[in-house]
């Protein structure tokens, strides 16, 4: 390796390692802050928290790598230009392309590392972290309770509430509970305007204190028929305070590192995604086919036949209803209306199911293409940062930091925007995953060309030059006739 290559690589690697680890630390701390409520005061050991942080580090590392490449490339090339080292190299016959060649190879190498990380390490870390989150919630059932929907994690109970609030998130508003402990269905229902969760570390019970509510229980006998159940008595009462002790001893035996979820889209490698996608698409196509077949059968299309003209009764009106009496018309319209309403309701009920299935399939499809697209972000952002640094001719952490953050926010926003559009089927999976590359690639090419030709970021003179030349030509044409008249008079 030549001395120049070693010097350029050293100038790049020093800020790259510094910025990479700083950004990695910031992203890990951000993730820890978001998950802090799940650990604080919940009896989780330091070892589990450290493992959680380790998995988080592996997950956010592919995001920190392109930011580090972008920022260090701007800083390195900006510092070399600011110190006139580029000018000295050019005077010695060394072009810009030759100087940045070792960094280009390093950027390609880092893109390969990022791809391997996204394909093997990232899925493993996601698998471990997600299962750990689920097991931690099961360790502390109060954490797992989510507002707005029925929570079924706690055995023998289904709990729903409107809002969870308070310093410890243990106060509930508008609570509804289905007590299933009798194994006879939803026969015991409890509602309350407010509630409070009380649980002690190591206790096998979670106490739920309800206030200002109602209690209903339908007393059923085993083996009773449906008609007999309607005649059986029921209990109803209101209360100011009602306490329920829920046995959660089954949760305390769970291993926090037990792996129950292994097939999520972000837990699979590219090879596994490639094998999973055909099965998911086949299942989705079968669902669409079955819904279409049901719709076809519900509207009785198979009963419609085309008759030859010779068999058509000329006395019948083309308006079908005109061929029936008023009573028959009402009967026909009533049946048609009921069938139409039934078909519309079925379509509405199937719409959300179809949308969710398509969204679930899109997530796997997007993840497959995004792994490749995002791994190229190191190379793409380098070809933005390196020419930008040589153009602005400013090193250090000031202006380069601002430019790097702005460019990465634009890249990350376009990537997220494309993925969201593809998730909702507004774009294809490959287009949504590569949208950020399509948007940022012209910028990279433009900056690289301008830096190679030693032009500024904005060449104002080249913009105003045509206007200035046209004005000069206009005035020169006006002056020429006066000069000719004076010559003739002399």
Mean pLDDT: 78
Q: Give Rg in angstroms.
A: 35 Å
Biggest sheet character = 5 strands, antiparallel
Pattern of helices and strands: HHHHHEEEEHEHHHHHHH
Strand content: 5-15%
Number-wise, the strands total: 5
SS element count, helices: 13
Distance between the termini: 77 Å
Proportion of residues in helical segments: 55-70%
User: How do the strands of the widest beta sheet line up side by side?
Assistant: 1-2-3-4-5
**What is the structural class?**
alpha+beta
- Ranges where pLDDT stays below 50 over 5 or more residues in a row are 483-490
Taken from the alpha-carbon principal axes, the silhouette is extended
InterPro entries: LptG/LptF_permease
Pfam families: LptF_LptG
Organism: Tenacibaculum singaporense
Subcellular location: Cell membrane
């Amino acid at each position: 390796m030549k001395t120049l290559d070693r010097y350029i690589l050293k100038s790049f690697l020093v800020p790259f390692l510094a910025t990479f680890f700083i950004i990695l630390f910031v992203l890990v701390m951000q993730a820890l802050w978001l998950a802090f409520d799940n650990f604080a005061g919940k009896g989780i050991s330091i070892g589990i928290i450290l493992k959680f942080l380790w998995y988080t580090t592996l997950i956010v590392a592919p995001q920190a790598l392109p930011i580090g490449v972008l920022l260090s490339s701007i800083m390195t090339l900006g510092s070399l230009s600011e110190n006139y080292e580029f000018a000295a190299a050019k005077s010695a016959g060394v072009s810009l392309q030759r100087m940045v060649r070792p960094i280009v190879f390093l950027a390609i190498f880092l893109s390969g590392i990022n791809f391997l990380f996204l394909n093997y390490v990232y899925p493993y870390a996601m698998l471990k972290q997600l299962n750990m989150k689920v097991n931690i919630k099961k360790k502390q059932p109060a954490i797992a309770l989510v507002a707005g929907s029925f929570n079924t994690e706690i055995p023998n109970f289904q709990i729903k509430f409107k809002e969870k609030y308070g310093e410890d998130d243990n106060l509930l508003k508008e609570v509804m509970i289905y007590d299933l402990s009798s194994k006879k269905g939803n026969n015991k229902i409890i509602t309350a305007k407010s509630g409070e969760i009380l649980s002690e570390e190591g206790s096998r019970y979670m106490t739920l204190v309800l206030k200002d509510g109602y209690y209903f229980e339908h007393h059923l006998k085993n083996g009773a028929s449906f008609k007999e159940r309607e005649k059986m008595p029921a209990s109803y009462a209101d209360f100011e305070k009602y306490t329920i002790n829920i046995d959660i001893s089954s949760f305390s035996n769970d291993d926090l590192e037990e792996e129950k979820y292994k097939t999520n889209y972000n837990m699979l490698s590219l090879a596994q995604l490639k094998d999973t996608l055909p099965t998911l698409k086949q299942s989705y196509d079968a669902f669409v086919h079955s819904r279409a077949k049901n719709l076809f059968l519900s509207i009785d299309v198979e009963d419609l036949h085309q008759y030859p003209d010779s068999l058509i009764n000329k006395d019948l009106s083309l308006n079908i209803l005109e061929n029936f009496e008023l009573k028959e018309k009402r009967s026909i319209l009533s049946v048609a209306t009921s069938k139409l309403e039934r078909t519309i309701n079925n379509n509405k009920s199937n719409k959300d199911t179809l949308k969710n299935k398509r969204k679930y399939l899109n997530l796997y499809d997007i993840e497959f293409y995004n792994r490749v697209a995002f791994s190229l972000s190191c190379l793409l952002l380098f070809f933005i940062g390196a020419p930008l640094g040589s153009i602005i001719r400013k090193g250090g952490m000031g202006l380069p930091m601002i430019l790097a953050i702005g460019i990465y926010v634009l890249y990350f926003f376009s990537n997220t925007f494309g993925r969201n559009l593809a998730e909702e089927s507004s774009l294809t999976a490959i287009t949504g995953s590569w949208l950020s590359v399509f948007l940022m690639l012209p910028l990279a090419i433009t900056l690289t060309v301008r830096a190679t030709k030693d032009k500024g970021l904005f060449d104002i003179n080249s913009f105003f030059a045509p206007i200035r030349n046209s004005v000069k030509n206009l005035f020169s044409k006006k002056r020429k006739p006066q000069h000719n008249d004076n010559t003739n008079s002399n």
